[in-house]
Design goal:
Elements: H1 2-20, H2 29-34, H3 40-46, H4 50-58, E1 62-67, H5 69-73, H6 82-91, E2 93-94, E3 109-111, E4 118-124, E5 127-130, E6 134-143, E7 146-151, H7 159-166
This protein binds 2-acetamido-2-deoxy-beta-D-glucopyranose (2 copies).
The site of one 2-acetamido-2-deoxy-beta-D-glucopyranose has 6 residues, from strand 4.
Signal peptide: 1-26
InterPro entries: Adhesion/Biosynth-related, FAS1_domain
Organism: Nitzschia inconspicua
Amino acid sequence: MRFFNTVASSFFVATIFLVSSLPAYAQSVFDVISNDPQLTILRTYLATTPGLTNRLRSSTDITIFAPTNQAFANVANVDLSRGQIAQILRYHFVPSGEFLASDISDGLQLRSAFQSERLNFQVNSTGVFVNNFSQVVQPNMMASNGVIHKIGNTPALPRTILAALNR
Ligand SMILES: *[C@@H]1O[C@H](CO)[C@@H](O)[C@H](O)[C@H]1NC(C)=O
Ligand SMILES: *[C@@H]1O[C@H](CO)[C@@H](O)[C@H](O)[C@H]1NC(C)=O
């Protein structure tokens, strides 16, 4: 009896040890996006870009700016092809590091995964903005392989798409 108790309690200790040595955040960037009710349009678009989805699952040290359903609704009148949507998604993905809100300063530029085109940041008393119009509405959503910042207002658009829309 005593023997079993000892075995049982050392098993218990080993289990606790294993659980506490798991990474602090179990969900990948992709999982966090997929489970967020404000990001269902983004999730639907990601389903059409498997290459990007894989990177959000398995790349490490990444940052993604995630347009909310409201942000996409605000550009719903803009006619975008599937290819343009894929470009816009890649433009919101920064593969070169995990940038927390505290790492983002006024004037910072980060290279996106869309042809390395830069995202420009403004930080002032109103908040944090991408390319002057897309405001960070929920920063620092942590995942096992990176960080997500939700953006409202509107998705950030790469130059090629802005040029096509103004034509
Ligand atoms: C943001 O707005 C400022 C002031 O109007 C302007 O000088 C700057 O070029 C804009 N930046 C971007 C990325 O649009
Ligand atoms: C902060 O920057 C954003 C984006 O450029 C701009 O729209 C907003 O008016 C600025 N707020 C202040 C208080 O300057």
